[in-house]
Amino acid sequence: MTISRNISITGRITLFTAAVSALLCTLLATVLLIAIHRYATSALSSEIRAAGGRVAITVEDLGRVSGPLAQHPGRNVQVVDHQGRVVASTPALRGKPPMATFTPDGMNTRDGVVCGGVFGHEQCDIVIAQSADRPEGNWTVYASSPVVPAWVEPRLASLVIGSAVVLAVAITCLGNRIVSASLRPVRAIRSELDEINATCPSRQVSLPPSRDEISDLADSINHTLARLDAAMTQQRQFASDASHDLRSPIAAMRAEVEDALLAPEATTVTRLGNTLLPSLKRLESIVSDLLTLTKLDAGAPTVLTTIDLGELVSEECRMHPQRSKRLICRLESGVEVRADRQRLGRLLTNLLHNADRHAESTITVQLRHEDDERWPGGVAVLEVLDDGPGIDPDKRELVFRRFTRLDSARNKDAGGSGLGLPIARQIAEAAGGSLRIEDSDRGTRFVLRLPRNVHDASGSTPAAG
User: Fold this and answer.
1) Which pLDDT score, from 0 to 100, does residue 27 have?
2) Residue 323: what pLDDT?
3) Which of 69, 152, 217, 218 could form a disulfide with 77, with the two C-beta atoms 3.0–4.6 Å apart?
């Protein structure tokens, strides 16, 4: 097993082809030799039977044997009378007992193979016994010839075996060439992949001209390289944006500290602390959001539980800090979903904080359930609306990009990190739902859709808060 792992695919397939071709060619040569042997044995038996038949006819007609008993030097013939005495035989068996003990059957003929006896210890002959009718009784004519060897003829066996060896070698060489030609595009792809590095991540491998599995592999590699390039681009952009957003509060804090060091009598610890605290809070918020995004990107395990979404939203509404904005919650009871409670709470908090920053006077939260053919249990729909300036339709997807803040948000509130809405959408998608901005009469309407728990009980009693 260890040896096979150290052999290349070409070598392994070539060895397999060699083994299979050798086995098949050996089997073919064996079958061919057996067929030739059977044919030669059948032809020899027919010839022996014909030679014995001529002698039997002579005995029946003349009552004696005239002329040579066998016309072939390798044949032996014996004539045995009705009393079992050998009355005539070829020279090789003269003076010897009958070559066989069996007599013709009802068809006046019988054949068999006799080894040893009058033929010697190491020789076997095909013996055919035929009956000759005489007035005093039936005589028996035995005709024999040495059995055909398994190889029939040495030159024929050499030809068959040599042809089998040549055929096995030819098949092995052909298999090696086919495998080498088939894997040539793979070697080209590997060579191109070795040349791709961080300085040219957008480069792709060449597609083979043939449309086969290797072409599909090259296509998959190109798709993977494209995804890696996009991920690297996103990672570089993410690092750049994170550095930019982290640098601003750090620079502000450094400026305040330097001013305090240059003019210590013009400030106090309390004043300096109050000045630095907003920047520290923003740093804490950005770091917390970055940590959350890292966990989401890494696919950190979640604890899925059945959650009454109405109760969770009601709790978030109560916990939301009361500012100058009016918060209205219209929640349908009994709407249950299956999700991670902590992450879902983070999603709601992000939506409420975003609405609080942009609303003029009122924030409205609505929860209901709807039927949806994509989910057998229907869908839970949560809407968070504000009466702010709203977002243009062509910019609605931009707000879900990381570190993206529209001009209105930057001018109105510099406290946002540009990560709250991307985190909210990623949490929604991880729970099998969606988060979008949809049309509204005024302001911005965020719509969260989550598949309902199929075991929940539908309710229709609204709760206002």
Assistant:
1) 95
2) 64
3) 69
Query: CB-hemisphere CA count at 13 Å for 354?
Result: 28
Give the separation between CA 114 and CA 127, rounded to whole angstroms: 7
Cα–Cα distances (Å) from 435 to 69, 352, 421, in that order, read 109, 14, 9
DSSP strand pairing (326-332 vs 362-372): parallel
Q: Which fold has domain 213-295?
A: Helix Hairpins (1.10.287)
Q: What is the pLDDT of residue 221?
A: 84
C-alpha torsion sign, points 387, 389, 391, 393: positive
Amino acid identity at 251: A
Q: Identify whether the C-beta of residue 382 lies closer than 8 Å to the C-beta of residue 313.
A: yes
**pLDDT at position 381, please?**
93
pLDDT for 25 equals: 95
**CATH class held by domain 10-146:** alpha beta
Q: Is 117 exposed, middle or buried (0-12, 13-18, 19+ CB in 10 A)?
A: middle
SS (H, E, C) the chain: CHHHHCCCHHHHHHHHHHHHHHHHHHHHHHHHHHHHHHHHHHHHHHHHHHHHHHHHHHHHHHCCCCCCCCCCCCCEEEEECCCCCEEEECHHHCCCCCCCCCCCCCCCEEEEEEECHHHCCCCEEEEEEEEEEECCEEEEEEEEEECCCCCCCHHHHHHHHHHHHHHHHHHHHHHHHHHHHHHHHHHHHHHHHHHCCCCCCCCCCCCCCCCCHHHHHHHHHHHHHHHHHHHHHHHHHHHHHHHHHHHHHHHHHHHHHHHHHHCHHHCCHHHHHHHHHHHHHHHHHHHHHHHHHHHHHCCCCCCEEEEEHHHHHHHHHHHCCCCCCEEEEEEECCCEEEEEHHHHHHHHHHHHHHHHHHCCCEEEEEEEEEEECCEEEEEEEEEEEECCCCCCHHHCCHHHCCCCCCHHHHHHCCCCCCCHHHHHHHHHHHCCCEEEEECCCCCEEEEEEEEECCCCCCCCCEEEC
Q: What is the mean pLDDT of each run of 10 residues along the chain (465 residues)?
A: 69 92 95 93 91 86 73 85 87 88 82 88 89 86 90 90 94 92 86 77 79 84 84 75 76 85 84 84 79 76 85 86 79 88 89 88 90 82 91 88 63 60 89 90 91 59 34
326-332, strands of its sheet edge to edge: 434-438, 444-451, 375-386, 362-372, 326-332, 462-464
pLDDT of residue 252: 83
Would you say 353 and 327 are in contact if contact means Cβ atoms under 8 Å apart? no
Q: Where are the domains of the chain?
A: 10-146, 213-295, 301-464
CB 164 within 8 A of CB 23: no
